[in-house]
Design a protein that fits this description.
DUF3040; DUF3040 domain-containing protein; single chain; mainly alpha; membrane; transmembrane helix; transmembrane
Length: about 150
């Protein structure tokens, strides 16, 4: 017995909700894993990169610098897509570290790293004069209180 239009609509809504909630599980149900999709994207990006090199060289040989620029842009775009696919493939089932989570938060891969020493101290923060372990414990308590 075929499904009614109402049942089909509800089924599609449930599928969309599942994909939004857990894309990894949804892709497993579809039969393709995220690893296979990332591998396919990386291979395609490698092929497009080679095409970009050919276009770049064609522009250099023909003397039309505009074609060379187009080839470079093709290479740059495919390298970006390929590297993001390889990074995503390598982190398959692993938990992301702080730096990787920051990179994931910024699509460009560049972000602000809060580290190093600053000449001006933040207001409300006293200069610690304890041992190394006391400073580490204090930092740990502050992180726990912030929810990190």
């Amino acid at each position: 017995m075929p499904l009614s239009e109402e049942e089909l609509r509800l089924l599609e809504q449930m599928e969309r909700a599942l994909v939004e909630e857990d894309p990894k599980f949804a892709s497993t149900l579809r039969g393709t894993t995220l690893r296979q999709a990332a591998r396919r994207r990386a291979l395609l990006a490698g092929f497009v990169f080679a095409v970009g090199i050919a276009v770049l060289m064609g522009g250099a040989i023909s003397g039309y610098w505009q074609i060379g620029i187009v080839g470079f842009v093709i290479m740059l775009g495919s390298a970006t897509i390929g590297l993001s696919a390889v990074r995503g493939q390598g982190l398959g089932g692993q938990q992301k570290s702080g730096a990787e989570a920051a990179a994931a938060a910024h699509p460009s891969g560049f972000g602000v790293i809060d580290g190093g020493r600053s000449r001006s101290r933040r207001p409300g923060r006293a200069k610690s004069s304890g041992s190394f372990m006391e400073r580490v414990e204090e930092r740990w308590r502050r992180r726990k209180n912030r929810g990190f």
